[in-house]
Sequence to fold (705 residues):
Amino acid sequence: MSNKALKRGIAAAAAGLMAVTALAGCATDSGPQTIRVVAAQYTDDMQAYYDDLVTRFEEANPNITVEVEVVSWNDIDQKLKTMVQTNDLPDIGNLNYFSSFAADGLLYTAEELVPADVLADMVPTFIENSKYEGTAYAVPDLASARLFFYNKDIFEKAGVTEADIATWDGLVAAAKKIKTAVPDVVPIALPLGPEEAQAEFMIWANSNDGGVYSNGEWTIDSEKNVETMEFLADLVAQGLTNPTPATFDRTSGAFALFSEGKAAMLNGAIFLPGVLEDNGSTVNYGFTNFPTNRADGKSITLGVQDYFFGFKKDGNKDAVQKFMSFIFEPDNYAGFLKAAGGFLPATVSAGEAMSSDPALAPYIAVLPNAVFYPGSEASWPAVQGEMQQTIGTAVTAGADIKAILAAIAAKAE
Amino acid sequence: MKKILAGPLPWVGPMLILIFAVVLWPVFEMLRTSVLEISSSGRERGFIGLGNYEELLANPNLPGAFIRTISWVLIVVAITIFISLFLAQLLNANFPGRRYVRWALIVPWASSVIMTATSFRWMLDGYYGILNRILLDLGLITETVEWLGDPESSFPMLIAVAVFVSLPFTTFVLLAGLQTVPGELYEAARVDGATSWKSYFGITFPLLRTSLFVATVINLINVFNQFPIIWVMTQGGPGYETDTTTTLMYKLAFKSQEIGQSAALSVLNFAVILVFVLIYLRASGYTKKEEN
Fold:
């Protein structure tokens, strides 16, 4: 930045603020600089992981200071958005979507973000999901997959086995048996509250040949999805679920009930065993594929991936790149996965190393049948936000399912 | 220069700067944002005039939220004032332990609204809530009820909690009003043979008018702006069925990613508050004139 620009800056009325911005802009690749990372708090171990990582990174790169802020999942979305709105951009973000930032032209491409060899090691499906209008603007940091969890003791009491719940018909029959044999438990926990309703919808809808997006088209209010919601509404009406799914959240509702042995079945995820452990649960549980109603009889899973992305700012590219490639060094990345606790790795090499882990193997096995959120669509965050709030009302008695789905579909551009 | 320094400016200057920075500038920014197109991640994409307002007025959830806001404000304030009149009268009477009762009344006020709302949210929970336990044990219900699962039961619950947290302030304002009523008036009334009802409506109530007015308007504003109770207990749900325009404004921005609509709604909300304030200023000026 030239002297002239500096002088002009000082001359301006808001001299103080301008000067700070100008000075920050002056930092070149060689001078000392600071990058800010806003990272997701997968577990309480993340902070310790980053502290150690940053210490070692700064030793290797004495002119770069890294400030990592580990933010809980409740707040991180808003935190990043506020930073973007106020133009107080961090350098690296870590979130479950990226496309709206990419649409605003704020992000580096994946090629700019990490070196070619790291990019080549990423699981191709995950990179595919990191694209916005054909270009990858983020890299996957990890992924999770879901399976159907059940309480073995309740199954035994009701005389139901894992094989019985392979299909929707079998599921309904099993739920009815449980309702009769063990009346004080909820046969199927159905958390359609705002916390994670979009995941529930994705799983049930795709298990019925429906879904939100296929072949470049939004399919939110398709016949198949209406049928899916009618099926769920029927479960609710028969008392086979918790009574008010629309206000029943995943963590405070479904997971809590299952932990206490008060729910027989639920859509669970790779991190549910960890939650059960944290809750001090002694429930004797098993997990299996999702019950399916698909024409091909196959069972799907919902794959969810999160992202790292870099915000374009003057002169930060080099430092961002260095830090990103440092995270993806095999040892550091293994540490990241360990701290995050039981997720699926985003790189092929780490995946191979972990495929022998008995806790992860069933999830890695179902990944070929995984469906993903249309995270590369810029309007997905808006669709998701609307769906979280209203999809639960579709299972209330007398709800106009078609109209509710159409209102969600209206959010897709 | 000397003249300026000797004048009133050095004294009111800091105040003017403060008013500009924390009142006028945010209002200006709010108005400006409402006429801009904003991307879902919060970037400005240029001027679109009244587009945000048009979108907002076409939002199918607005009319419901608007009607609910009106009933929310009217019902909460009316019940609060009504109960507070009794409480203030009680606390004004002389009885042993009055001091402790007054302290106790401050508790809902002193504790954070988030905390109060969270406590109620769990007391009303379908599976873990104490209310279900009590009602089951008393045999008043036969199976557990999800009090916050259905707008027909959750909205009255929200109103009850809002009244609960509004009572202390209102009661103390009215109590202060009661204490300004001179005792001789009551004595005179008694001498003239007035019944207690008569002296209440003939003396107390008219003289309470100013404090009643202050309590009403401040409550109107507080209740209209009330966010944490609704947010913690129902998040405006299921769907949008317990939203007021205040929570809807938040949900539009942070859930539905409609920042423009949210900005437009905040301008409308601001206009409503402004009306309340104008009523307040006008009426308080009116009472002053009367006193003079």
Summary: The domain at 3-143+305-362 of chain A is CATH 3.40.190.10 (D-Maltodextrin-Binding Protein; domain 2).
